[in-house]
Design a protein that fits this description.
Strand content: 25-35%
Order of helices and strands: EHEHEHEHHEEEEHHEEEEHEEEE
Largest sheet: 10 strands, antiparallel
Number of helices: 8
Distance between the termini: 14 Å
Keywords: ATP-binding, Kinase, Lipid biosynthesis, Lipid metabolism, Magnesium, Metal-binding, Nucleotide-binding, Phospholipid biosynthesis, Phospholipid metabolism, Transferase
Bound molecules: adenosine-5'-triphosphate
InterPro entries: ATP-NAD_kinase_N (IPR017438), Diacylglycerol/lipid_kinase (IPR005218), Diacylglycerol_kinase_cat_dom (IPR001206), Lipid_Phosphate_FormReg (IPR050187), NAD/diacylglycerol_kinase_sf (IPR016064), YegS/DAGK_C (IPR045540)
Oligomer: single chain
Pfam families: DAGK_cat (PF00781), YegS_C (PF19279)
Structural class: alpha+beta
Number of strands: 16
Radius of gyration: 19 Å
Cofactor: Mg(2+)
Shape: globular
Organism: Salegentibacter agarivorans
Length: 291
């Protein structure tokens, strides 16, 4: 890969409720050692994509480092869609689903080695209703949980935990989904319908054991019923593909129709209630630094 001369570091100051000063200072110090320039951009929550795009257009960056959660990585990926600059992740969100799927370690020094190294993956991305999805998007119970979490004051994993009871209490599951595949249409009931580019949710739950982030397909996962035992198995990574609990369909594109509007999320960001979803593998790939 090209020698690193200039790096853009995008930092989300609020993600995961974590202070990022140590990350910024360590990256600054390491780049000084190799004589590379650094521009740090702190997100504001307003027009970040446009501002990142402007910086990338005006500078000649060799890498873009991201210290934030999945939402921040997604914004950076959208900003870089026409630039082909490798992205490196410094996981600093609540869930860090993408980093977990890419096997990015928790130790900052290890993350730096990957970010400054030569190995990268050409990652698949999904286009869902015209918007990019890097990791997992879903309709149903999980999106309802994310909606409630976004309205709560407590961030981080505890915030999700606290919202799980009211979410279950208020939810109108099961939902009915009509799924239009390449060669057939099926109608199914379930608590959650996910479009997964990877194996795991940010909690580490291995919901899609066969998922590969760069295989040119994604999986539709239909969770049929609320089965605590199966959920616990999934959380412990002991998924055995029990088809009574979850049905997995690998595809390159699909459309989904719901009888009533159902809560919908993309990469951990609540989008709203939707009746129709159109999803396909994007023709564009995301160069992402890995081992
Ligand atoms: N300075 C800021 N103030 C408020 N919100 C911000 C700021 N910068 C970014 N955001 C918002 O942060 C969100 C992305 O957060 P991200 O997913 O990276 O972190 P996270 O901790 O994993 O989030 P979550 O807690 O939702 O899992 C976006 O909605 C973005 O608009």
């Amino acid at each position: 890969m090209k020698e690193i001369q200039k790096v853009l570091l995008v930092v989300n100051p609020i993600s995961g409720g974590l202070n990022k000063e140590h990350i910024i200072q360590t990256i600054d110090y390491e780049l000084l050692k190799i004589n590379a320039g650094l521009i740090t951009y702190k997100t504001t929550g307003k027009n970040d994509r446009e501002k990142i795009q402007k910086l990338v257009t005006e500078n000649n960056f060799d890498r873009v480092f991201v210290a934030g959660g999945d939402g921040t990585i997604k914004q950076v990926a959208e900003a870089l869609i026409n630039f082909l600059i490798p992205i490196a992740i410094f996981p600093a969100g609540s869930a860090n689903g993408l980093a977990i799927n890419l096997g990015i370690p928790n130790i900052l020094e290890e993350q730096l080695k990957i970010a400054l190294g030569n190995e990268h993956k050409e990652m698949d991305m999904l286009e869902i209703n015209g918007e990019l999805c890097l990791h997992i998007s879903d309709l149903g119970l999980n999106a309802e949980l994310i909606k409630n979490y976004e309205h709560s004051r407590i961030r981080g994993k505890m915030g999700y935990l606290l919202q799980s009871i009211p979410t279950l209490w208020e939810s109108k599951y099961p939902f009915e989904f009509e799924i239009e595949l390449e060669n057939k249409t099926i109608t199914k009931k379930g608590i959650l319908l996910a479009f997964a580019n990877a194996k795991k949710y940010g909690t580490g739950a291995n919901v899609n054991p066969k998922g590969k982030i760069d295989d040119g397909v994604f999986e539709i996962l239909l969770f049929k019923n609320f089965d605590i035992l199966e959920i616990l198995k999934t959380l412990r990574n002991e998924t055995d593909g029990n088809s009574e609990f979850v049905e997995i369909i690998p595809v390159k594109s699909a459309r989904v129709f719901c009888r009533k509007p159902v809560a919908f999320q993309v990469d951990g960001e609540y989008i709203g209630e939707k009746e129709e979803i159109s999803v396909k593998i994007s023709a564009k790939k995301l160069p992402i630094m890995t081992y």
